[in-house]
Design brief:
Ribonucleotide Reductase Protein R1, domain 1; alpha/beta; about 25% strand; OB fold (Dihydrolipoamide Acetyltransferase, E2P); 3 domains; Rossmann fold; 6-stranded mixed beta sheet; globular; 9 helices
Amino acid sequence: MTHWGLVVACHGRHVWVEDAQGERRICHPRGKKNQAVVGDHVQWTASEDGGSIESVDTRKNLFYRQDEIRTKSFAANIDQVLVLVAAEPDFSQSQLARALIAARHEGIRTLIGLNKQDLTEAFERAWHKLLAYQRLGCKVLPLSLKNDAFDLTDLRSELDQRVTLVLGPSGAGKSTLINRLVPNANAATNIISQALQSGKHTTTSTTWYWMDATKKTALMDSPGFQAFGLHHIAASSLASCMPDINAHADHCKFHNCSHVHEPDCGVRDALASQAIDAGRYKIYTELFAELSAPVNY
């Protein structure tokens, strides 16, 4: 007999599945390769060592990154991505943009959290760097996660009734955020680690946490990353994933304009009139060149 389940953690071929009653067990995929990712809805059958995943239900989305060699899936069936960055260490504008582009490509809502508001001067500099994203309509939330007295009402409001993937570089405060919002998060990860005999838990893969007893709101912790490849996005589709670029793309003389070198380009005209942020356009041109380059195998 097959049962419905929700994938809440993956460690290699060990897939942690929560059933309809809220019980969790280790399941293994049939075949050599695990196709399931956290957030997947799966059909599983019981076995002596836990369970076997028979099939993965159709996804509404899949958030992932891809370089020339490999694909790294973060999560499936999510409502939004919260990109968490900090005043210190300084964050990469390019990596932030890449994460937002990947989300937009999948039609996933995004918001940005800027942590370490207590570092006044560094925070002001970082906030200024994010003004271009606020002008795009992306909500940016100021945070001070290590301050237990800091009010997280605005953040909780954005997370309520949604499944949110928390993404960001190492040192931004993802684990602190998870522990502030999910008091039993450490206990949950320790249970998984002990069951998998993996020792002390480190965030090497995505993990699902419920924020409420009614299981309407969920957070996913994810591993930090140093690079975010976008090779799954065609260079010709890049502009459509950057709303500030896309807003002027219909004003070009050529329908297949790259917005890099062609004459009578609406995007470059907008850049000249400062309607497009110069830093954002630089990111666009760098990404366009990267995605247009021949793939070396």
